[in-house]
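User: Can you help me understand a structure? I only have the sequence.
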Amino acid sequence: MKKLLSLLSALCLLFPGLAAATSLPMDFSPAPVANEANYLNDHEYQDDTLHVWIEDIQRDNSIYHVAHVEISDPSQLRTALSCDPGETAKAPASVIGAAYNAVVGVNGDGYLFRSSGYIVRQGQVLRKSGAMELDYLLIDTAGDFHPLRKPAKATLSEALKTLNVAQCYYFGPVLVMDGEVQTVYNQYGFAPQDRSPRTAIGQVGPLSYVLVVVDGRQNQSRGVTHKQLAQFMGDLGCVTAFNLDGGGSSTLLFHGKVYNSVSEGSERDISDILYFGTGVTGQ
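Assistant: Let's start by predicting it. Here is the structure, written out as tokens:
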């Protein structure tokens, strides 16, 4: 994976698409406010540091909403919480996104609904429980994804020591690793064989990502299994892809609104989001 990302980095230098951005602080401060003029329509945003375009794909008797995201600085990949660290209040994804000036974002891993897992957000350790029943995704300060499939404690500890970790998710399963679609075992949690709403994040290359939300439990969109979602993420060209909280929590945000059709008819209160903000300051 490192060799592939290095090659893609070299290609990005040869064919630059976005201007350099000033790094945003590694804390829970909001991203800069995006210029409204840069929302080109109801599914695309573009400025000198951020390009987002969304497509809706019909497949597996379901609707996949795919947000393609390119950023110029890794600090534009950010997370936000529903409350201050140590508190337990929850809020709709759209409320969290509006508070943090998210251009585009998805629900996170719902860490407040569980008491286990090593949890890091914006470089801050929120929980140190070394649970190993689920998969991990570590995102470093360069914006690169590092998946761990039900790792041993020593493996997780080594990764946390070796990497400069900005975010650490405990949910899964890992859907794609080193460019290969992964086998999802039936005994994995979160009903892997059910046709349900799903949320996934994937890295395509350096500072290039996809956010995917699948509508489910609706007449027009049945929902998908983890196996179907893994294959879809692989077909998108993900080097790494990871499943996040699904069901009624599955939410795609764009331009301050919920983009997808949530399964329960209204937003569920959740604990966290992953989002992208502009790197253009002083607008």
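Now, to help you interpret it: The helical segments are 2-14, 93-99, 153-162, 226-235. Residues 1-16 have pLDDT under 50 and may be disordered. Let me know which part you'd like to focus on.
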